[in-house]
Amino acid sequence: MIASTASSHAPSLNTAGGAERASRSGIWVGLFAITMSFAAFSSALFVREGTPDWGHLVLPSILYLNTFVLLLSSGTLELSRRSLAHATVADSTAATGGIGWLLCTLALGIAFCCGQYLAWQNLRAQGIYLATNPNSSFFYVLTFIHVLHLLAGIVALLYLTARFVFRRAAFRRSLLDNTAIYWHFLCVLWIYLFLLCRMKL
Amino acid sequence: MAESSVQQAHVHAPPEGFIRKYIFSLDHKVIGKQYYGLALVAVFTGMILSWLMRIHMVWPAAKIPGLELLSKVGAPGGVMTPEYYLSLLTMHGTLMVFFVLTNAPFAAFGNYFLPIQIGAEDMAFPRFNMMSFWVTFVAWVVLMLAFVIPDGPPIAGWTEYTPLSAVGKDAGPGMQWGASLWGVSIAIFCIASLLGALNFIATTLDLRAKGMTLMRMPICTWAWFITSCIALLAFAVLLPACILLILDRHAGTSFFIPSGLVISDRLQPHSGGSPLLWQHLFWFFGHPEVYIAILPSMGIVSHILINSMRKPLLSAKVIIYSMMSIGFLSYMVWGHHMFLSGMNPMSALAFSFPTLTITIPATIMTLIWLGSLYGADIKITSASLFALGFISMFVAGGVSGFFLAQPSIDIYLHATYFVVGHFHMVMGVASLFGVFAGTYFWFPKMTGRFMNETLGKLHFWITFLGAYCIFMPFHYLGLIGNVRRYQSFVDDYMAPYLSWHQFITIAALITGAAQFIFLFNLIYSRFRGAPAPENPWNATSLEWSIPSPPPWNNFGGRHPVVYHDPYQYGVKGSKGDFVMQDSPEALASGD
Question: Which among A73, B24, B566, B582 has the fewest CB atoms less than 10 Å away?
């Protein structure tokens, strides 16, 4: 008779590590769902582009600047994450630097959203609205839903900043890491959407 | 033991106060019961709608008492208009598919038992979990609002096929605001389901107890896990589809509405949209939805049958792999719902092949259940009867799927009652049998009391025979050309079918009435049922190792360690012919 033993590689229950692993899994699973949603939008675009009323949309040039701003925000968030990784003492230089980069990211994220708003305003000024043609419909839908997702990221950054400033002891690095994954994903997603709009609209 | 090194980090504090305990609860068990309660309300609503439809179908001039109160326009003088029949058809389908077949077997039982069966204190994200239920509730409220607005519920069916569902009031009663409520409701439902699926996946992957390897999870846990993976992909596609539909309806876009479309003598101010695009997006969700409904019941039934037979299945692993195969293949078959859409015959062939292929894992599972039952000394309870009934319904309803998977046959049968019989049996009744089986089986754990077995068996036999009386004739009616979606069968060429339909209507009324036996049993037993011990079925999985009902943190602060696979029956253990998963007893097999 051989006694079976509990396997050692299964995650342990309700430990801080278990919760952190679950958060990390949750983020990746969430990103998978978002990817699937944008794949659905993209497939709709591919189907729709074959119809006779499909035209051409001149994209507002501010989108190039917005793209640069979002890429920059990914960089500043990464700098923040790395600084805070070394910030073991509450008032250390690394912590101050980390929170500074976090605020930079926040500002750049808000700047991106404002930039997208200006892009919509630019199109509206040309008389191009949501329902003007299928190209404009897809442009407004894709960019608006991307901004909605980014706003969720901004809320997460605000929460992290508030946590760091007011309840530094309860600040969890895993939350910052997960927010960073989400933010970088949205950055990559925007590049895809921008290229899609550039090539197909 | 390593247990001592595990940190005491509860996922949330013990609930205090009525609101936190019973309304906005973070406890997965309360949330599971909330889902169950919502599904119960939805299933009785949906069933009563089906009664109204069946009565109208065979006695179209009949005055139905009280119907005028529901809609003066839709049922003037209590007599249903043809358009209102379509409204009820839409609401019946939507309630049953989304709020019953998705909620009950997956969200309700999964929420309650998945964390316990893997040895966790709660879901990974209790706040998301609470949010997913309440967002679902909002979706249900938005849908039900369609009954009270002057416009009434939409008439486009639960699939809301475009372009009619996208053009507004020109498409008929209920298509102005009713259809908008439908779109908004389903979009909200998608968000809730995505949150729920995310929670299920993260919980299963990361909160398993020590020793609970993936292959030591009970089959029903596997089923909920696979279902959540399917749901994650499916609802992530339906949500964009609903957004585009709402934009077509209210923002003047033309995603689904083609050029030159004239409806109700009015040229629609849209151009270039593709109605087929909606069908593709919808069925990319719609077919996996069939498996979202049926897979959890497959898991529940397997779990219960093993306990009732007191022996493992021929191969639990093959059941799990089959469920995975079904989940994977479910994304390759959506086009078989569109054989009549004018698709290229080569595309039809491409969708037909995986549709026929998906029957292989389903057949393997059936053979494993039947092979395991062969020679088994099964204990007949209400739960095991419904589990056996599930297999019967799944086989009887599933066999017709072999025919429908072939375009040449489907083109003849698609618009007939054959399809109605097929999907009601295999997706609706079979799945609900799984829910009934789960209810009778787990009720003692959830409440600490037994359900009444006599009433349970009475409920089973009436429901089982009634379901066959309703849905088997549908197949025959379909074969002789009885079209579906018609509001009555009084035209001359349909006269021969009328007596069949009258029989079906009477069967539906009796079968539906039997569900009130279940409802009575559920409520009565909750308060007056015989007290149940901790493990009344001598079962092996972790939910039976804790008190009934379980405490708020499931294991009372204890962290279970798992030593065996979940189905150690027919072995000599210290408690009888079984060894529990968390028992450190040694087994000859080493499992």
Answer: B24
For CA atoms B92, B97, B98, B104, give the dihedral sign.
Answer: positive
A-contacting residues of B 195-254, CB under 8 Å?
197-199, 201-203, 205-213, 216, 232-233, 235-237, 239-241, 243-244, 247, 251-254
Q: What is the DSSP letter of A29?
A: H
How far is the C-alpha of B440 from the C-alpha of B219, rounded, in Å? 18
Give Cα B223 to chain centroid, integer Å: 13
Segment B319-375, tens digit of pLDDT: 999 999 999 999 999 999 999 888 888 889 999 999 999 999 999 999 999 999 998
Report which residue type is found at B509: L
CA distances from B23 to A171, B18, B135, B466 (A): 30, 7, 13, 36
| Rounded distance between C-alpha atoms, residue B377 and residue B391, angstroms | 17
Q: How many CB pairs under 8 A join A and B?
A: 176
**How big is chain A, counted in residues?**
201
* Residue B5 neighbours by CB distance under 10 Å: 9
Structure tokens at B58: 């065979």
Q: Is B240 helix (H, G, I), strand (E, B) or coil?
A: helix
Residues A164-187 pLDDT 10s: 878 777 777 888 899 999 999 999
Question: Residues B456, B506: contact at Cβ < 8 Å?
Answer: no
CA distance B500 to chain A (A): 43
Determine if the peptide bond prior to B154 is cis (ω within 30°): no
d(CA B100, CA B432): 9
Handedness of CA B351, B321, B300, A18 (dihedral sign): negative
- State the alpha helices, DSSP H only, in B19-74: 28-58, 67-70
Residue type, B446: M
Q: Is residue B298 part of a domain?
A: no
Nearest chain B Cα distance for residue A93, angstroms: 32
β partners of residue B569: B578
Cα separation, B110 vs B541, in Å, equals 15
Distance CA(B35)–CA(B129), nearest Å, equals 11
What gap in Å lies between CA B95 and CA B93, rounded to an integer? 6
Q: Answer yes or no: do A11 and B243 touch at CB < 8 A.
A: no
> Which domain does B94 fall in, by range?
31-213
Q: Considering its fold, how many domains does chain B have in total?
A: 2
Q: Which tokens in the block code for residue B99?
A: 């709020």
Query: Any idea which residue has 């909920």 for tokens?
Result: B224
The three-state (H, E, C) secondary structure of B98-113, written as one string = HHHHHHHHHHHHHHHH
Q: Of the candidates B192, B213, B234, which is a domain's last residue? A: B213
8 A C-beta contact, residue B285 and residue B298: no
In CATH, what class is A59-200? mainly alpha
Q: In the listed set B183, B213, B243, which residue is the last one of a domain according to the structure? A: B213
Q: Are B561 and B553 in contact (CB under 8 A)?
A: no
Residue B586 to residue A3, Cβ atoms within 8 A:
yes
Euclidean distance between CA atoms B591 and B587, whole angstroms: 7
